[in-house]
Amino acid sequence: QLQLVESGGGLVQPGGSLTLTCAAPGTSLDYYAIGWFRQAPGKEREGVSCISISGGRTDFADSVKGRFTISRDHVKHTVSLRMNSLKSEDTAVYYCAAVRRLMYTDSTCPLEIDDLDSWGQGTQVTVSS
Questions:
Q1: Helix, strand or coil for residue 107?
Q2: Pairing mode, if any, of strands 123-127 and 10-12?
Q3: Residue 28 binned pLDDT confidence (cut-offs 50, 70, 90)
Q4: For residues 99 and 108, is the Cβ–Cβ distance under 8 A?
Q5: What percent of the residues of the chain are helix, what percent strand, and what percent coil, each to the nearest 5?
Q6: Has residue 1 got a pLDDT over 80?
Q7: pLDDT tens digits, residue range 40-61?
Q8: Residue 38: Cβ within 10 Å count
Q9: Based on C-alpha coordinates, what's the Rg of the chain?
Q10: Which of 24, 48, 79, 113 has the most CB atoms around its CB within 10 Å?
Q11: Can you give the pLDDT at residue 30?
């Protein structure tokens, strides 16, 4: 069982930036494809961004393209979501999710809420002036 922990959430002004990090204490995410999801009050949980095991494939929701980036830290074995030019509509609880694969070359990039093995508890992001 993989335990995921999100960090980096908080309060930020519109137009500001924030970085979220997904980690698995005591283990590594190097052989997991990672997805970031968010859920605002009264709305369905939606995919925000994802990254394959190697980092060679990434994807983003249309609402965040050009503003968010996703990357792997191969030293700390974590995945980060850098959020720039934040808007009030980005306010939500952000979740990290993972799916295990056996090959480093696997191209899985989980932007949809399926085929996922583990979820974190979520971290609150609030964009307000």
A1: coil
A2: parallel
A3: confident
A4: yes
A5: 0, 45, 55
A6: no
A7: 999 999 999 999 999 999 999 9
A8: 24
A9: 14
A10: 79
A11: 87
